[in-house]
Write a structure and sequence with these properties.
Keywords: Membrane, Transmembrane, Transmembrane helix. It comes from Solirubrobacter deserti. This is SPW repeat-containing protein. The structure is a single chain. The chain is mainly alpha-helical. The chain has one domain. Helix content is 67%, strand content 0%. It contains five helices and no strands. Helix 1 packs antiparallel against helix 2, helix 1 packs antiparallel against helix 5 and helix 2 runs parallel beside helix 5.
């Protein structure tokens, strides 16, 4: 696992908890479900990195999380400015978004295995 992937997972857990705590108080059900969905996406970044052997699926999950991570941040900021929302939701969304973006900047591939390619002799030149 790369160093920034746990940051994205921490932001995802915090976003899920914030959405569950404020469900019905400050936000509607649709907004809470959307935030929980994005929290699960942020949480999937380290989980997929641990569950797979190569970097392709982990990088794909981090690309999705970093490409769409602005949506829960925007929802949290609108809720903070126009509603009764607290600062936990936008902060959790920002942590998840930045963690997934930073995991893309890290080019290490921990857990990647080299493919088993059989060696063949060189062809005879006539």
């Amino acid at each position: 696992m790369r160093r920034s992937e746990p940051i994205a997972g921490l932001g995802g857990v915090a976003l899920i908890v914030a959405a569950l705590l404020h469900w019905g108080e400050d936000m509607g059900a649709v907004q809470a479900v959307v935030l929980i969905g994005f929290g699960l996406l942020f949480l999937a970044v380290p989980v997929v990195a641990l569950a797979t052997s190569g970097p392709s699926k982990a990088v794909g999950t981090a690309v999705l999380a970093s490409a769409f991570g602005w949506v829960p941040l925007l929802i949290g900021l609108v809720q903070l400015v126009f509603g009764d929302g607290g600062w936990v939701t936008p902060l959790a969304a920002l942590v998840g978004w930045v963690g997934s973006w930073l995991s893309l900047r890290d080019e290490s591939t921990p857990g990647a295995t080299t493919p088993d390619v059989p060696r063949r002799p060189a062809p005879d030149v006539v």
